[in-house]
Structure to design on (1074 residues):
């Protein structure tokens, strides 16, 4: 019975989340929906980082870089690629059936960019069809690019352990950030790359019409992504992948001596978690509508680490729940307050509180605050099992131990 | 038929020659003891055979397939398993999960459930079945040794190298390991047993290899080896005689 | 750049041969029964500098080839790169203006000294505790903040020396306390996988300190006064009857090399501290004990050195060195709570380059990184872009080091 508690609680929570946008009706609807969407985003990141760090023991500080790769890939795709029914003659273009696949020149950072396509449009006088490829292709590309870089980084760090790995991945993240800010002709740097919303023309679900700024469709997209990622990760965790990845975290040499292809699984875990991070980044980028290189500042990485640590590094679910709880806490602690004539600026103090929480959790509750709760349910009865035999006193090994 | 050919294996670390051309062959379900003073190169030889380190020169063939220069996981899949001198249980995985790792690594397309019965049988045999859901770290040192042996049974290799299974083990537990060795051997597997416990070596093994600072100085049945002047010389040269290979066993005066 | 094709094809040629050398050389050495820990580095440099002309002899004469080959090739690689750059971009300021080059080199060395000092703190901690302190940049930031607050806010008019000492004291105390509270459980096996624990907990500390300071001091930039004004000596005139006047201007040597006042002061202090540090490590009991622990923990414990005390001392000292670097640089840059990020990353690069745990390595690494950064910011045509790429220069060095010689230039094998 007790072992079922986490599963029951989980199903209840999922039911609640699935119904929430339909039943919630308060005035701050949009705000709360925004919080949930972002909470899902962080939950995906924290749980995939937990898979990478907690399960596989690869303490990478470059997770946000993969998220940003997803976001920027779909962002660039969204801004640079068009399909036209006639040749522009001004842009770089590839014939594609009866269509032309057009790539714009760098858009630069001027407020009103004039592209080669605009030039062509003037010449066409309006009788040529110009359309953007579906942004879902961009998101898909983002995921693939994330996976590709995950593979690359995974190969590069094969021989690096612990601190070296953390340094290297942090470095990778910083390089990416400097490239994104420096190449502002292409990425628009700190000016920010704008993206279409997920459903630029709105969407009709079961007869209800939602326009591009409505939160509900995005909520369900993010929720579905969250569920899909969690499902994939749980399936992996329960399969041989999870077993092998944990064995190589515990002892790489011993795992290899038992026939585990450690290299393959180490790289694979990088690929999988990078793709998941990239997916979250790509969808969130379209939701927010603008991305800057600041999405991968260390603060973001630190938040994800904090969420996973406080939830429980060694459990995907605990990390995800921890992320949601901490994200809501962060939001609700945002309000500054005044005691006497001293104003406490909570926007900063909440982060101080966060840092302290992470350190104290690590120090006194290494497995996080949530995971032990879950474990105490799923592993209930184990101790009794062990003791039962001890009480019977039949085991030879027990005697041997007693003699030691 | 199991066939391990070790041919002129050399290994040096920088300038230190740890193995100086070791040659021997294992054929069929032999039970071989490998002895030698501390630092003789026994563990290094194990590491070379298992692929954890590459030999500087020489070849190793297992069942007519070359296995030196293969990575450890391929060596394991080719049929050579080993334990570690210092136990290396997966500490934050349950005992059962520890056993599933080699089982799944050896067979594509199966799941943990398929191996549950086999794992339970092995745990019962090793008398640690009551600990099946405990984490590896919760086990005592001796129990962790048993767990490592259990993992090897799941891997089911043709040839097993046990690196000092008796170190720090109570006689009761030793008996279980004896039973284990017989079980594996009776199942037609070859065993190379590294130990400083002469008594066990002499009771169990029908062939003895003696490694002395990189040279294989003797290879033969225990009686002959015991009286081999080179071996006696090697053991007399030992300053630190904590290996327990005293005059009693070798029939030569010790160096107290 | 006028002839980018020339430059980039030279670079590509070098990379290609560097990769070939780096990959093939270990195999060749392995076949010759040699130690291969230096092989990728040797192969890559020889390949990059001389292509097949150097690689084939390197492989052929393998055991006789010495480290001198590697050193010569490293110098050769740099020279070829510089030459290619000069030929490809003849109008670049770095090519036409010798004064600027001299200034950049001097500035690179000046900054490199301070970088080295900060990195030494990191490497000192690592050599004793085997912990990489991810909060190193925050110690640097706190050092600077402390100087600003003491000398400009709390006690205006305090001599800079006092402010710097206060910065040292506070970072020393924070380091010591943190070690005592959070790192002690690592030593007695109460923490599983202690290295990962240390990575996470110092990362948490960084986060905590950064926002703690921001909560107290605010996020707007502050700037400290210069410590010291240079004297100008001239003949008295009617309008200006003083013989000696102080000036805030740059220090100008031989009319060519110009170093800004704050950087110069900082470097002089850094060198003084370095001397004190060396004296401490090599001449005092505590210093000798520290070095003993870093070389062999068990042996040191046997001789009566309390390793736990040494851990605490090392962490406190390491934090203090970072704090000191910040304290001397706060007069050169404007200061925000996030200011530690870049220096921290740079220190990581330096210690990996020099070899984690090696003090001379940290110093030499600091100089190298200082020079590379000076070249990068001074010579790359588009200055804004060059500045954006500052973190990347170090990371390229880091990546190359990890790929070619993970133990670093002066590193010991673990
Ligand atoms: N990675 C290594 N690098 C350098 N030297 C090594 C390395 N591994 C082993 N050695 C050296 O090789 C020699 C043989 O070591 P090995 O562990 O094989 O001895 P052993 O016979 O197993 O000894 P014991 O009975 O004490 O277990 C020792 O002198 C050891 O110092
Ligand atoms: Mg050994």
């Amino acid at each position: 019975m007790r072992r079922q508690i986490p599963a029951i609680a989980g199903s209840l929570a999922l039911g609640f989340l699935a119904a929430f946008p339909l039943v919630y009706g308060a005035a701050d609807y949009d705000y709360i929906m925004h919080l949930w969407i972002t909470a899902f985003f962080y939950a995906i990141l924290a749980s995939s980082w937990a898979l990478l760090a907690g399960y596989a023991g690869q303490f990478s500080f470059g997770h946000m870089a993969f998220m940003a790769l997803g976001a920027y890939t779909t962002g660039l795709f969204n801004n640079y690629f068009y399909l036209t029914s006639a040749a522009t003659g001004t842009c770089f273009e590839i014939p594609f059936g009866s269509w032309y696949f057009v790539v714009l020149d760098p858009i630069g950072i001027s407020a009103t960019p004039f592209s080669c396509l605009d030039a062509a449009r003037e010449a066409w006088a309006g009788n040529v069809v110009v359309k953007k490829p579906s942004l879902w292709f961009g998101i898909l590309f983002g995921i693939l690019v994330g996976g590709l870089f995950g593979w690359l980084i995974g190969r590069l760090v094969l021989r690096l352990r612990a601190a070296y790995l953390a340094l290297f991945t942090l470095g990778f993240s910083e390089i990416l950030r400097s490239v994104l800010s420096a190449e502002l002709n292409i990425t628009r740097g700190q000016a920010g790359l704008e993206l279409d919303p997920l459903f630029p023309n709105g969407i009709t679900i079961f007869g209800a019409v939602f326009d591009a700024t409505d939160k509900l469709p995005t909520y369900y997209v993010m929720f579905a992504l969250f569920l899909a990622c969690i499902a994939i990760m749980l399936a992996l965790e329960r399969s041989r992948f999870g077993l092998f990845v944990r064995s190589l975290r515990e002892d790489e040499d011993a795992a290899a001596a038992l026939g585990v292809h450690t290299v393959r699984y180490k790289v694979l875990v990088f690929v999988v978690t990078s793709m998941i991070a990239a997916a979250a980044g790509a969808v969130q980028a379209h939701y927010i509508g603008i991305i800057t290189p600041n999405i991968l500042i260390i603060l973001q990485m630190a938040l994800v680490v904090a969420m996973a640590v406080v939830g429980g590094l060694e459990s995907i679910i605990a990390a995800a729940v921890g992320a949601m709880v901490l994200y809501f806490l962060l939001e609700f602690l945002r309000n500054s307050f005044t005691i006497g004539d001293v104003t406490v600026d909570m926007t900063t103090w909440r982060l101080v509180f966060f840092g302290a929480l992470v350190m104290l959790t690590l120090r006194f509750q290494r497995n996080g605050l949530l995971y032990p709760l879950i474990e105490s349910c799923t592993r209930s009865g184990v101790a009794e099992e062990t003791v039962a035999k001890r009480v019977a006193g039949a085991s030879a090994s027990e005697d041997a131990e007693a003699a030691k | 038929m199991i066939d391990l050919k070790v041919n002129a294996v050399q290994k040096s670390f920088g300038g230190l020659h740890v193995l100086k051309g070791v040659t021997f062959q294992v054929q069929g379900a032999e039970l071989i003891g490998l002895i030698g003073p501390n630092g003789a190169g026994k563990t290094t030889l194990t590491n070379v055979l298992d692929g954890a380190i590459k030999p500087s020169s020489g070849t190793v063939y297992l069942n007519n397939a070359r296995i030196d220069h293969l990575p450890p996981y391929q060596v394991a899949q080719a049929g050579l398993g080993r334990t570690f001198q210092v136990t290396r249980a997966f500490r934050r995985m349950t005992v059962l999960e520890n056993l599933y790792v080699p089982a799944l690594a050896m067979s594509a397309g199966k799941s943990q459930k398929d191996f549950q019965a086999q794992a339970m049988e092995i745990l019962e045999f090793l008398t640690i079945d009551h600990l099946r859901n405990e984490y590896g770290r919760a086990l005592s040192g001796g129990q962790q040794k048993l767990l490592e042996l259990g993992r090897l049974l799941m891997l089911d290799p043709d040839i097993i190298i046990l690196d000092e299974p008796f170190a720090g083990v109570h006689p009761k537990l030793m008996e279980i390991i004896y039973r284990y060795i017989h079980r594996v051997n009776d199942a037609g597997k070859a065993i190379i047993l590294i130990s400083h416990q002469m008594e066990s070596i002499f009771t169990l093994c029908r062939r003895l290899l003696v490694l002395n600072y990189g040279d294989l100085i003797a290879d033969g049945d225990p009686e002959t080896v015991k009286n081999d002047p080179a071996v006696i010389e090697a053991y007399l040269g030992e300053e630190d005689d904590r290996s327990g290979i005293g005059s009693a066993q070798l029939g030569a005066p010790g160096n107290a | 750049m006028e002839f980018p094709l020339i430059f980039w094809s030279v670079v590509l040629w070098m990379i290609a041969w560097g990769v070939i050398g780096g990959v093939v050389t270990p195999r060749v050495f392995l076949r010759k029964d040699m130690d291969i820990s230096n092989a990728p580095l040797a192969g890559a440099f020889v390949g990059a500098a001389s292509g097949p002309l150097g690689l084939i002899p390197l492989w052929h004469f393998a055991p006789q080839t010495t480290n001198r080959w590697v050193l010569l090739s490293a110098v050769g690689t740099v020279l070829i790169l510089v030459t290619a750059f000069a030929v490809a971009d003849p109008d670049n300021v770095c090519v036409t203006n010798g004064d600027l080059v001299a200034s950049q080199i001097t500035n690179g060395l000046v900054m490199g000294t301070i970088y080295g000092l900060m990195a030494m703190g990191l490497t000192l901690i690592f050599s004793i505790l085997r912990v990489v302190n991810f909060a190193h940049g925050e110690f640097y930031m706190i050092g600077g903040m402390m100087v600003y607050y003491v000398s400009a806010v709390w006690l205006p008019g305090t001599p800079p020396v006092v402010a710097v000492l206060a910065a040292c004291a506070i970072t020393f105390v924070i380091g010591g306390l943190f070690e005592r509270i959070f790192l002690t459980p690592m030593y007695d096996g109460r923490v599983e996988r202690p290295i990962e624990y240390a990575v996470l907990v110092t990362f948490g500390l960084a986060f905590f300190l950064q926002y703690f300071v921001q909560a107290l001091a605010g996020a707007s930039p502050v700037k400290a006064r210069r410590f010291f004004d240079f004297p100008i000596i001239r003949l008295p005139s009617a309008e200006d009857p003083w013989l000696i006047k102080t000036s805030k201007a740059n220090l100008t040597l031989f009319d060519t090399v110009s170093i800004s006042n704050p950087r110069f002061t900082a470097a002089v202090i850094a060198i003084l501290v370095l001397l004190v540090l060396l004296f401490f490590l090599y001449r005092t009991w505590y210093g000798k004990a520290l070095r003993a622990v870093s070389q062999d923990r068990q042996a040191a414990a046997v001789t009566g050195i309390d390793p736990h005390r040494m851990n605490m001392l090392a962490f406190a000292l390491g934090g203090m060195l970072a704090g000191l670097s910040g304290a001397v640089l706060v007069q050169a840059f404007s200061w925000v709570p996030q200011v530690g990020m870049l220096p921290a990353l740079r220190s990581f690069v330096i210690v990996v380059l020099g070899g984690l745990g090696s003090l001379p390595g940290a110093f030499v690494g600091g100089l190298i990184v200082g020079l590379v950064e000076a070249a990068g910011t001074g010579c790359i045509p588009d200055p804004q872009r060059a500045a954006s790429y500052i973190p990347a220069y170090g990371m390229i060095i880091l990546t190359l080091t990890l790929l070619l010689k993970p133990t670093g230039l002066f590193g010991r094998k673990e």
Observations:
- Residues 280 and 304 of chain A are 13 Å apart (CA to CA).
- Chain A touches chain C at residues 53, 57, 59, 61, 156, 159-164, 166-168, 170-172, 174-175, 177-179, 181-183, 298-299, 302, 305-306, 309, 345, 348-349, 351-352, 354-356, 358-359, 362-363, 366 (CB under 8 Å).
- The mean pLDDT of chain A is 85.
